[in-house]
Design a protein that fits this description.
The chain contains 3 helices and 5 strands, in the order αβαββββα. It is of the alpha+beta class. The protein has one domain: HupH hydrogenase expression protein, C-terminal domain (Ribosomal Protein S8, Chain: A, domain 1), CATH 3.30.1370.140. Strand 4 and strand 5 form a beta hairpin. The relative contact order is 0.13.
Length: about 140
């Protein structure tokens, strides 16, 4: 066995790389629209016929940024910043850990991260109760 036999080679056929090129071109268009018009956009990856090799190539091309947000509400959700500001992977799983949403969002921060006004109002009430408990002890 020569030393060349020990080198791992991942082959990606032309169809797969074309799919990834198309996705990346769409992400560029979405990012341009967001920069120029302030319009966020998204691309549903789950609806596309992505192979494992496609997904791997796409993840490599977009890289990882500095921020990852995880939420556990009716299943696990992750918002992962790519190496390109404003471009996020958003993945939602159900309570059986099945991926139900996998998309790329182009926006400053994915909307799901922001609390609903009713949640903030409820939190305010609970926090006031906690403060009252501390003051009364």
């Amino acid at each position: 066995m020569s030393s060349l036999d020990r080198i791992a080679v991942n082959l990606i056929d032309e169809g797969h790389s074309e799919m990834v090129r198309s996705i990346l071109s769409e992400v560029v268009s979405l990012l341009e629209r967001w920069v120029k018009k302030g319009e966020p956009g998204q691309l549903d990856l789950k609806s596309l016929p992505l192979s494992a090799a496609d997904s791997q190539l796409l993840e490599k091309a977009l890289g990882r940024g500095e921020v990852t947000v995880s939420m556990d509400v009716m299943g696990n959700s992750q918002m992962i910043e790519t190496a390109f500001s404003g471009v996020w992977y958003v993945i939602h799983r159900d309570d059986q850990d099945q991926v139900i949403v996998k998309q790329i969002e182009v926006v400053d921060i994915p909307a799901i991260i922001f609390p609903q006004p009713s949640e903030v109002l409820s939190a305010l009430g609970r926090l006031k109760l906690e403060v009252d408990k501390i003051h009364n002890n």
